[in-house]
Amino acid sequence: MKKTPHILFGISGIGYGHTFRQLPLVEHFAACGRVTIFAHGQSEEFYRKQFRHRASVHVERIEIPFLTGSKTGLDFWKAAKEPINQSSTYLRTNLMAMKRAEEFIGKPNLVITDYEPLSAQYAYLYQSPLVTIDQQSKYLIGQFPKILHGLSYQDEVARLHMFFPYAAKRIACSFFHVTRSPQAVDDVEIFPSIIKQKVRELARSKSLNPSLLVYISAARKFIQSQKETVQALQSIKKTDLHLFVQASEVTFFRQQRQSNWHIHPHGDKQFLPLLARCHGMIATAGHSLLSECMYLGIPVYAIAIAPYEQHMNAAVIQKGGFGISAPGLTKHALKNFEKHLPTFEQNIRHDKTILLRGSGQDTIIPILEGMIT
User: Fold this and answer.
1) Are residues 51 and 185 in the same domain?
2) Residue 301: how many CA atoms within 13 Å on its side-chain side?
3) Which domain holds residue 13?
4) What is the pLDDT of residues 173-225, one digit of tens each?
5) Within-domain flag for 116
6) Which residues is 130 bridged to in the sheet?
7) Which of 41, 195, 226, 324 is the most buried (most CB within 10 A)?
8) Residue 109 lies in a domain
9) pLDDT at residue number 1
10) What is the CA radius of gyration of the chain?
């Protein structure tokens, strides 16, 4: 590996999954080289704070288009109407980010992108090796149901082909094994999910009184109203519930709080200690959180919301008996989940066919080091 590599990371800011998947990689290369990060939304906010005192890391704000999906690919007409695509600062913001990247790292030795297209453009400009690392690339090669609960993965395939038509290496992270389709033409390598170091270091020690974590993602609109969510959760009487919600919803849930409820805003430092001690997780079916639960052996009540990816994740949880999948929170499903927690935990522990074990960075980082020119 070059003594002082110059690396460009592109990190999507739609949901914390992209943010935290790249963190172990950024930390590794920031310790031995110069790093520029193209980011937006939650990722920009997180990485500015995380590396604010690290001179070897520059974070540049970028803007990306939001391309609306359809069952056959992309809906350009609908995407044109999206408010986020009306920005008049899009071009200027991105050109300034590229200019500052030129000044800080120049021609990068490697470009790594997690569903962020501007970094790919920079790689093509400088003819630097581009590596895509995400969870969506598994849909380029895997055997999956074409339609799942009325949703298709063809929009993911279309975005990947549009944003990243060429990559020196395509890496997909997954907490479950992917069967390659005989019709697949793309070259994608599947690795276990990248797990944050702080999660890897957790020592599981379940609390004496049963406890469940409830995590409602802020990335997309939840499938139920606040009132419906409260009514369902009120059916849990003896188990401690730790609810992690958006900051704007904290007041509402505290007003509805039961004696066994504990309300936390997203980002609360108590999340990881509580994760180590909980008996189960109730959550939207995002890839990163479910990966962490399977890594730690925590059963999941998975609530799939758009897109297709979440429905696929939830289907894996249901099929493996690692928890349950339900279209929302109901008293009956919650009772069933609580009742079978020990069985779900045993299924996770003893599975040998569905779950993809380990932590992906242990293999991915040496591969990336070997690609640095």
Assistant:
1) yes
2) 26
3) 6-195+358-371
4) 999 999 999 999 899 999 999 999 999 999 999 999 999 999 987 655 677 88
5) yes
6) 111
7) 195
8) yes
9) 59
10) 21
The structure tokens listed for 132 are 């895509």
Percent of the chain with pLDDT over 90: 86
Sheet bearing 130-134, strands edge to edge: 57-61, 34-39, 6-11, 110-114, 130-134, 169-174, 188-192
Cα–Cα distance list, 123 to 106, 112, 187, 213, 262 (Å): 11, 9, 19, 41, 46
Q: Compute CA 294 distance to the chain's CA centroid, rounded to the nearest angstrom.
A: 14
Q: Render pLDDT for 318-361 as a digit per residue (tens, 0 to 9).
A: 999 999 999 999 999 999 999 999 999 999 999 999 999 999 99
The predicted-structure confidence for 147-166, as pLDDT tens digits, reads as follows 999 999 999 999 999 999 99
Residue 68 lies in a domain: yes
CB 7 within 8 A of CB 22: no
The contacts of residue 105 (CB under 8 Å, 6+ apart) are 6, 7, 8, 34, 35, 36
pLDDT of 71 reads 87
Confidence class for position 274, pLDDT limits 50, 70, 90: very high
Domain count, the chain: 2
Mean pLDDT of 88-111: 96
Query: Is 1 domain-assigned?
Result: no
What is the three-state SS of the chain? CCCCCEEEEEECCCCHHHHHHHHHHHHHHHCCCEEEEEECHHHHHHHHHHCCCCCCEEEEECCCCCCCEECCEECHHHHHHCHHHHCCCHHHHHHHHHHHHHHHCCCCCEEEEECCHHHHHHHHHHCCCEEEEECHHHHHCECCCCEECCEECHHHHHHHHHHCCCCCEEEEEECECCCECCCCCCCEEEEECCCCHHHHCCCCCCCCCCEEEEECCCCCCCCCCHHHHHHHHCCCCCCEEEEEECHHHHHHHHHCCCCCEEEEECCCCCHHHHHHHCCEEEEECCHHHHHHHHHHCCCEEEECCCCHHHHHHHHHHHHHCCEEEECCCCHHHHHHHHHCHHHHHHHHHHCCCCECCCCCHHHHHHHHHHHCC
CATH code at position 305: 3.40.50.2000
The mean of the pLDDT values for the chain is 94
Structure tokens at 123: 């790689």
